[in-house]
């Protein structure tokens, strides 16, 4: 198997693992967004409590802060970002 094929497989495997674990990793730092397993539905939208995470000096996950986002707003914002 050529090295580029194995490397691309590893990238895809890592991406799927992150999605399954609810993680959206930063591409330039060791931080990530940790999405909840469940959302909370209210009259004005579906609320997501998203944790901004990093690793401590021992490599253990550490929560920096929490963002409460409206799922519908987040989805709309993401679709409005143009591609290069």
What's the average pLDDT? 91
CA-based gyration radius: 16 Å
Query: What is the C-level CATH assignment?
Result: Alpha Beta
What is the helix/strand order? HEEEEEH
Using the alpha-carbon principal axes, give the shape: globular
Which architecture per CATH? Roll
What is the overall number of helices?
A: 2
Largest beta-sheet details: 5 strands, antiparallel
* % residues in beta strands: 35-45%
What's the CATH topology name?
Nuclear Transport Factor 2, Chain: A
Taken together, the total number of domains comes to 1
**CA(first)-CA(last) distance:** 32 Å
Helix percent band: 25-40%
Q: Could you list the spans in which at least 5 consecutive residues all have pLDDT below 50?
A: none
Q: Specify the structural class.
A: alpha+beta
Number of strands: 5
Region (Disordered): 1-23
Fill in the keyword field for this structure:
84 residues; alpha+beta; Nuclear Transport Factor 2, Chain: A; 5-stranded antiparallel beta sheet; globular
List the helices and strands and how they pair.
Layout: H1 3-20, E1 23-25, E2 32-34, E3 40-42, E4 45-55, E5 61-70, H2 71-80
Antiparallel strand pairs: 1-2, 2-4, 3-4, 4-5
């Amino acid at each position: 198997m050529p090295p580029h094929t194995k490397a691309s497989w590893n990238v895809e495997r890592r991406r799927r693992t992150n999605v399954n674990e609810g993680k959206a990793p930063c591409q330039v730092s060791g931080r990530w967004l940790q999405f909840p397993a469940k959302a909370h539905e209210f009259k004005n939208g579906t609320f997501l409590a998203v944790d901004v995470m990093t690793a401590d000096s021992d490599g253990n996950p550490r929560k920096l802060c929490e963002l409460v986002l409206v799922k519908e707003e987040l989805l709309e914002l993401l679709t409005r970002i143009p591609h290069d």
